[in-house]
């Protein structure tokens, strides 16, 4: 019985794929925080020149440095696995495959870009990186990557996750990182939030403000900021996932998938799996590509497309993206990595072009699907990944009802072994669905900058 497809070390992709080269129209360019045109030179205080070039690039294929490949090869290529027991439990004619990114050192897809970002910063003589993290997966991944290239790492972790997921902090510390709950008293942005909301659970937007401020205020010039999602170069680095999956599907005898599903917060996990398949769709393939977000943080399904800041304090460039407003305060759901107000510009543009079918799901349905997956396939997945699995269940049931064979591929973005508090609350009946009211959404959208009206 053919259960999984594995590639050899020599089959690790040697180039990243850049979706910007193939979109029918180019995404709108970023703008400076004041709404003026943004030049590459304005980003050098935060990012190395190599990453700025990748951010602006429309070249289809970009070579992966050998030093990056050497680290990625410790766990890549990752396996593509046929979920036969899940298929049987659902009595579906669909063939379900998952790309297992939980096998990385940090247990998620995040090191794919963390390693690249740490490498390029080290090459430019940077000694310290600051960043934010939601559930802790990105913070632990960057701490790991920094340890491989001799960099120091400071992570501002969303307070609700900092409190509920203490062992993510320990992972960062083991790899030499420093983890600070956000909002914190160590930055102006953090103090401003605490003064107004002393019990704030935090948000990725707040944590980004703190991390950016900490990087900009280092007078040595040896500190940069690293972002785990949203930006084009982050999407780029993650495409090794989908490039491997394309080859592995062929190994399993599948010509193409009918459906590609991944959870989406800022966009990096989704982009990593989906972007190579979006290229196939642009070229004429009939593929249903579904990004799945939480009902409590629905930027793609209920947000507006506008120029908005990536952070609460308005320190980042303005990005043209689907957004709930940079002042959005998400509910403290367990899928902390999906609690972000904005969507990656490239993902947003693909959605505007009709290349995607976004879906928003409630967390109880997601945990129910995750428990089913654990009891059939054995893997306890991250709460973020549970959103993808819940949509897989919906699609597999639809295939059963229609009597159609379908090939469904989804991204298993990370394991949930450090997210068991959420499972404990679900199993005890304490977990509740969280929704976003029209009134809350309207208040949040009022935070959109004058430079970024809905487009």
What can you see in these coordinates?
- The chain is of the alpha/beta class.
- The chain has a domain at 74-107 and 233-432: 3-Layer(aba) Sandwich (Rossmann fold), CATH 3.40.50.1100.
- 40% of the residues lie in helices and 16% in strands.
- It contains 18 helices and 15 strands.
- The strands form four sheets. A seven-stranded mixed sheet has the order 1-4-5-15-10-11-14, with helices on both faces. A four-stranded parallel sheet has the order 8-7-6-9, sandwiched between helices. The chain has a two-stranded antiparallel ribbon with strand order 2-3.
- A hairpin with an 8-residue loop joins β12 (304-309) and β13 (318-323).
Number of helices: 18
Top-tier CATH class of the domain at 74-107 and 233-432: Alpha Beta
Instruction: Please indicate the percent range of residues in DSSP E strands (runs of 2 or more).
Output: 15-25%
In helices, the fraction of residues equals 40-55%
Mean pLDDT: 93
> What is the CATH T-level topology of the domain at 74-107 and 233-432?
Rossmann fold
Largest sheet: 7 strands, mixed
Flag low-confidence runs: none
Q: List how many beta strands DSSP finds.
A: 15
Shape designation: globular
Strand pairing plus helix content: what structural class?
A: alpha/beta
Radius of gyration: 20 Å
Secondary structure: elements and pairs:
Elements: E1 4-5, E2 15-17, H1 49-56, E3 61-63, H2 66-72, E4 80-82, H3 84-90, E5 95-100, H4 111-123, E6 128-133, H5 137-149, E7 152-158, H6 159-164, H7 166-174, E8 178-182, H8 188-196, H9 204-216, E9 223-225, H10 232-238, H11 240-251, E10 259-263, H12 268-282, E11 288-294, H13 299-302, E12 304-309, E13 318-323, H14 345-352, E14 359-361, H15 363-377, H16 383-402, E15 407-412, H17 420-427, H18 438-445
Parallel strand pairs: 5-15, 6-7, 6-9, 7-8, 10-11, 10-15, 11-14
Antiparallel strand pairs: 1-4, 2-3, 4-5, 12-13
